[in-house]
Automatic annotation (TrEMBL):
<protein>
    <recommendedName>
        <fullName>Restriction endonuclease type IV Mrr domain-containing protein</fullName>
    </recommendedName>
</protein>
<feature type="region of interest" description="Disordered">
    <location>
        <begin position="86"/>
        <end position="114"/>
    </location>
</feature>
<feature type="compositionally biased region" description="Low complexity">
    <location>
        <begin position="87"/>
        <end position="105"/>
    </location>
</feature>
Length: 248
């Protein structure tokens, strides 16, 4: 793994940043190529294009979009680590406007009280992999006591932890309004919060209802990197467990 020195522009603290490594679909480890000597950018506003970077696999040549490397300084600043553009490896960058559309919500700065290491994704090949990835992500967020029931209960709860229940929709259809409302009712009955992960995204009605109920929604891609798709999800990333509001 590549390591580069990074100086926080806010507090001038020095860090040794290790490049996050992701598994390419071909199976080879892939990492964004960092620009040594380039100063990091202080993140004060997020956009879809800035949050993602094109990375080319050196084994198969495949180009994919990966999360732009970031570092949370103990002073509270969130830093974006400069990455060499994919064109530097002999390929052409995608045209402006190409790729996935940006999220309909505005992501919040990730200002967790305690900086987290980079999330290590798990490639999703089966429905069980999707549940395992969601469990890993919840532990990364700070839910250390995540339990995965061996048999999925009738309530369709896939994961449990102190103060939260989670559902993982690994089907090929967008998660519907009924799924959001059922999850909320299950959480309400036990006075805990809830979170939902989906492989195929969400219907407009489900997104709207989840926003009203303050349910964090995440989309799982096959590389195993959950992405927040609404404000409550951004809040959960920012503050972690134990600091969100009570169940509505």
């Amino acid at each position: 793994m590549e390591s580069v020195p990074v100086r926080c522009p806010a507090c001038r603290r020095e860090h040794a940043y290790i490049t996050p490594v992701y598994p390419c679909p071909c199976g080879s480890p892939t990492a964004p190529p960092l620009m040594r000597g380039a100063p990091p950018a202080l993140i004060t506003h997020r956009t879809w294009n800035d949050d993602w970077v094109s990375v080319r696999c050196h084994s198969c040549g495949r180009r994919d979009q990966w999360p732009h490397p970031e570092l949370c300084c103990p002073c509270g600043a969130v830093l974006r680590i400069p990455v060499r553009p994919v064109a530097a490896h002999g390929t052409t960058p995608p045209p402006t406007g190409a790729g996935s559309p940006g999220p309909s919500h505005i992501p919040l700065p990730r200002t967790a009280a305690h900086p987290r290491p980079s999330f290590r994704p798990l490639v999703i090949r089966t429905a069980r992999d999707a549940v395992d990835t969601a469990a890993l992500y919840l532990r990364w967020l700070g839910f250390s006591d995540v339990i995965q029931p061996q048999v999925r209960p009738g309530a369709r709860i896939d994961l449990r932890a102190a103060g939260i229940v989670a559902q993982v929709d690994a089907t090929t259809r967008p998660t519907a309004l009924r799924d959001v409302e059922c999850l909320w009712l299950n959480a309400l009955n036990t006075s805990v919060s809830s979170v939902l992960f989906s492989l195929a995204g969400y219907t407009d009605e489900a997104r709207s209802r989840a926003d009203g109920l303050a349910i964090p929604l995440f989309v799982l891609d096959l590389t195993g990197t959950p992405q927040p798709v609404n404000g409550p999800a951004d809040e959960l990333i920012s503050v972690g467990p134990g600091q969100r509001g009570p169940v509505a």
